[in-house]
Amino acid sequence: MLLAASCYFYMAFVPVYILILGFTIVVDYIAGIYIEKANGKKRKLYLICSLIANIGVLAVFKYYNFINDNISVLAGSLNLQNNIPYLKMLLPIGLSFHTFQAMSYTIEVYRGNQKAERHFGIYSLYVMFYPQLVAGPIERPQNILPQMHIKHEFSYLNMVEGLKLMVWGFFKKLVVADRLSIYVDTVFPNPELHNGSTVVISAVFFAIQIYCDFSGYSDIAIGCARVMGFELMTNFRIPYFSKSISEFWSKWHISLSTWFRDYLYIPLGGNRVPKQRLYLNLFIVFMVSGLWHGASWSFIVWGFLHAVYQVLGLMLNPLFSKFEEHLNSLVLRFWFFIKGLGVFCLVTFAWIFFRAHTIHDAFLMTENLKSFGERPFLGNGVNQFGHCLIAIALLFTIEYFMAFKPQVKLFDNPNSLVRWTSVIGLLFIILIFGVFNGGQFIYFQF
Amino acid sequence: MLNKNVIPFFKKLLLFIVVVFVVDWVIGFGLEKLYFSLEHGQFAQNTYALDKASPDILVFGSSRAQHHYSSEILSKKLGYSIYNAGRDGQFLPYYCAVQDVILQRKTPKIIILDVNVWELGPNEQKYAKLAQLLPYVAEHPILKKYTAEISEFENLKLISKTYPYNSTLLISVYDHLFKDEQPIDDRGYFPLIGQVSEQMFNKYKSEKAIYDKKRATQNIQIDQHAVAFYNQFLQKTKDLNIKTYVIISPTVLKEPKTEEKLLLESIAKKYNNVTFLDYAIDSNYNNHYQLFADEFHLNKKGADKFSEELAGLIK
Known about the structure:
B: Rossmann fold, five-stranded parallel β-sheet, 13 helices, 5 strands, about 50% helix
């Protein structure tokens, strides 16, 4: 029944694309069994076949036109003409997510950490489980497959906790992300019209928008799965309160960053390599991560920037540690605040490249930063901008308590009156301040 | 056998739904009172336009309509009563909705429709902004066909008493607290004070040059739904034999001949009761930045000049 619901959910977008999903499911299901049975080189061969099938699907549907674009540019610079036709089709929704989840299955079977799944329906559900099918969390087979074999009894606790998490996700999406998107969507498509102050505001708004959009979706997905008795992995842990870039990445899109850690960074040598090689590994991982998000140079630059931040962080870390040893607790807290602010600024700067329509637009926006200080564009009236500020204030106030004052419980308060008031209060904040224009989730496009 | 937790859960869920309905009614009632007691500001103008306005001359459009057509000059010169129903950031679907409601009450002698050059282009906000009509649906059911444009289930959401006042609380409170500081409108018209400096004008010029160049290379899709609304608006004026002026009011920089702009003109010319006027290419305004308060709007001096000229032409 869950598999049927998942098929229906996926087919609600572009029905025929279920065939692509079907292809990778069949290939990986068979590959899993063969990998488990085989020994030595054959085992590796089956894994490679599975990876080629998965990456091949990604290459055709996601990167073909990008590669073709670059061939055209290269050919143009050599006065040649590129006659390779372009593919005119929509990108299958959530392609990168379910492909990575499928790849993690065959890799884990190859490594011997997971038994090959013999039940085709259960394996299909592993790839297609609808709460996390189109935007993650990208699950590992060890966590989710065993849960799909057991019967899930109705659980009062799971229902209530799952629903509460979903309400929190809807708050992030409708009150914060969709509100900020109105401003962001006005500024980013026309960077030539906006000064430095506006670029700064729109970049900050986008930083918060993408966090709330994506972590909001993750909360809804995790909550929805919990209602049905499934425990999905945590995908975000209040990342904007991080004091370093590496801490940020341990709290942002955890299911993807751990995927890259386990299946790319560690096989490249991880931390147990000379420094130069370590830095190169970081550049490879982050630039591939950029490319995972989208077939465009702006995503690669975004990944490159994060790699630079990571390398700089590694270089500066010993200095910071020594410096922090000499600070008293009050000054140290202020220093951590400054570090947190610095991390937020760096991450926000990189988001400009992530959100801009083209690499040219992104550079134009960074160039416009020179006019910082001019009167900013405030959107369609103070009402709109005021709502953005209210949304941000509400988000950070609640998250501050979640991160630093966990003893202040609202949604899990033992007193039922406080608990009910908190949940109903949040519902009405959504109803009064939310944006209900059916805005799509940003990460669906990946 | 039914799990022993199922019945307690659904009992609590039922109680929760009842509490939510009660709270919804109480909060919705409070927001409704707050909204409809406003005397100044955009919401009060919406209420006046939809519930009371019945003038001889009706002006429709966005903020450019609101700031460009002096009620005093047009009313005095033409000898008719006037109301300016221009609203900041709105588009054709909104003008059609307000036209439908007002024309149920009264048939005006003249309608002025101020259109923007980007009116028929794609814009996701065009329909979302019809949410401003939600507080009036109960009183004017004709608006339901417009609010249905916001989303598929929009009218279903009106089961909630709070939902129609979504995103109104902040401005309602602001307009109540600062009611003495609100600029007073003259029959819907708001003159803008201030003047574009030469430096700002040069900045607009260079930005616009880049923007126009970029637009020229883009394949802009005409919003056929907006075209249908445009035709609906003009057809209604034709059916009621109302003298109508479709105007692209003055712009500080000359607007290029885009497909959207040409379409605005060609459609308007199909209706024999409609006169189309394009001031976006008028050298009396283009580059005369002293007549403008910002990149998009005339200041009072500019609006007076334009209204005088327009009144002379209509007369």
